[in-house]
Amino acid sequence: MKIVTVNVPESYIGAINKLIGENGLYPSRSELIRCAVRD
């Protein structure tokens, strides 16, 4: 797998952290981004 850098607006970080932490839908930010790109 190739490494790619993604810049995300600050306004998205809170929502991303909720999907990772509170809801536990994704184990990490990296996995969330991978799934988003696949879809």
From TrEMBL:
InterPro entries: Arc_rbn_hlx_hlx, CopG, Ribbon_hlx_hlx. One of its GO terms (biological process) is regulation of DNA-templated transcription. CDD domains: RHH_NikR_HicB-like. Signal peptide: none annotated. Residues 2-39 form the Ribbon-helix-helix protein CopG domain. It holds the Pfam family RHH_1. This is Ribbon-helix-helix protein CopG domain-containing protein.
